[in-house]
Amino acid sequence: MMGPAHSLSGAAAWLGVGAAAAAAGHPMPWPVLVVGALICAGAALAPDLDHKSATISRAFGPVSRGLCEVVDKLSYAVYKATKSRQDSRRTGGHRTLTHTWLWAVLIGGGASVGAITGGRWAVLAILFVHLVLAVEGLLWRAARVSSDVLVWLLGATSAWILAGVLDEPGNGSDWLFTAPGQEYLWLGLPIILGALVHDIGDALTVSGCPILWPIPIAGKRWYPMGPPKAIRFRAGSWVELKVLMPVFMLLGGVGGAAALNVI
């Protein structure tokens, strides 16, 4: 799928988690619901770090473009080293390593560890990166006509303000993980969810997605998961723009309202 649809699906997924958490007796304070939805929207773009033309490659200028090239080469090297005889030949690393459940867990787990060990500056860095990506995804039309510096300033300012709100007692820095020293441990959860939602979205397209790597399926380690090919669609097609995106907005609204006990 394209960047805007990925970001919308990520935000909707976290709002749905908020509704489920409220039903399970662990309601999210509103700052956790808002910040988590924004992080998840940004994280839903991150798996495309293996593609030099993706939204994330433009988000941080030369830094993200260079990182995309490195990740593409790394992903391709891992693919070549682990593919089976049944796996197809490739010329690049797009939709391989960064589009797997293992990558999602490692990145999200690393963010959680960084948040609880790196203190406030680590939290601010995690928020900044994902808020910039959320702006690029959710407000893509405005972001593309704005300068990168303005988007970065918006991300940095928002990260500083939201971190201050979360730090207030009862606002959620210790949501779900309440032991001393576990503040912001939950930050990895929307990152994991966003990456997985991205992978599921890509699995709906023509090419599928090797979400379950390295688990072998039908003799392939990089089996492209997805529904029957007859109901898959091409990225950017009318199905994505006219059906899926409105559905994501509707589900997100319902999930957010349920999470806040409005409905």
Automatic annotation (TrEMBL):
Q: Which molecular function terms from Gene Ontology are attached?
A: hydrolase activity
In terms of superkingdom, the source organism counts as: Bacteria
Q: Where exactly are the transmembrane stretches of this chain? A: 32-49, 96-116, 122-142, 149-166, 243-262
For this UniProt record, the keywords arranged alphabetically read as follows: Hydrolase, Membrane, Transmembrane, Transmembrane helix
Q: What is this protein called?
A: Metal-dependent hydrolase
